[in-house]
Amino acid sequence: xxxxxxxxxxxxxxxxxxxxxxxxxxxxxxxxxxxxxxxxxxxxxxxxxxxxxxxxxxxxxxxxxxxxxxxxxxxxxxxxxxxxxxxxxxxxxxxxxxxxxxxxxxxxxxxxxxxxxxxxxxxxxxxxxxxxxxxxxxxxxxxxxxxxxxxxxxxxxxxxxxxxxxxxxxxxxxxxxxxxxxxxxxxxxxxxxxxxxxxxxxxxxxxxxxxxxxxxxxxxxxxxxxxxxxxxxxxxxxxxxxxxxxxxxxxxxxxxxxxxxxxxxxxxxxxxxxxxxxxxxxxxxxxxxxxxxxxxxxxxxxxxxxxxxxxxxxxxxxxxxxxxxxxxxxxxxxxxxxxxxxxxxxxxxxxxxxxxxxxxxxxxxxxxxxxxxxxxx
Length: 377
Fold this sequence. Notes:
8-stranded antiparallel β-sheet; 6-stranded mixed β-sheet
């Protein structure tokens, strides 16, 4: 499924922003404009599907830190509102999911700064009017049964739990399960540890790895899967050769553990282990694992992937992004004008410039409907 549109209201610097999305979504802007908050709002949608929304917001410092702190209209509810619209092109079905989280009422159960889920709703549209399949208000859940009628679900949820995670895993509601599975396939790569003890620098268990974990801990297994199971590393080899002046990736046939190294043309008899590589080199390899893995995630989000990379690595990175975009929807946040230009040229898209408008994050040239005029793109 393709993420066709998103909305975020009252989340950090996102006062109210709705965007239509395409196959490649490129966001450029200065530090402090809120680029990462756009990215983070989609992570929270995935957290709702996983059932970890309360934990994710707690990690941010709780609702006190996550809520929009600017001026509000009188009597406006203090709530974070997130929406995601997914299109299943094969079945011509549009899924729309809404979730609102607010503060704990004074006399309610729950901890003071954890989010309290106020509303959830999932609807589907197949060309006619939208049909609601899940509707939650407080702890009570209404769900569409096999006969097409809304009925109350016998189980109530805690105010910090999501109905999407509870029912999407139950096996009785195919539409809810389909939407949840699609969102759980998204991959967010916010950055990789590159210190001496980073999992990127360690061998890992030799288990077939179709996709890179968000921590990068199975990077060696991802490379081994490409080299020894798919037996096709053409795109990976090309990217590494271009990024590292002719270097070659070496992936031994794994036994109990999978490992890898680089062979540089200046030292053809010497295998450089991951612990010997620079931060930029190991980070580029992790990005290669994320973008060129055996199985393509439906949605890949990269947040400032240019960090620690030498400028000469940015054109090969853009080439990998273009390759990944053939089968994955891409969300790229960067403040590198060079990377943005390279991606624009290779993917045939225009960047969206993130700005501050009266203290709130906004997209330059975007209409309130979420569309960007061609002349302003």
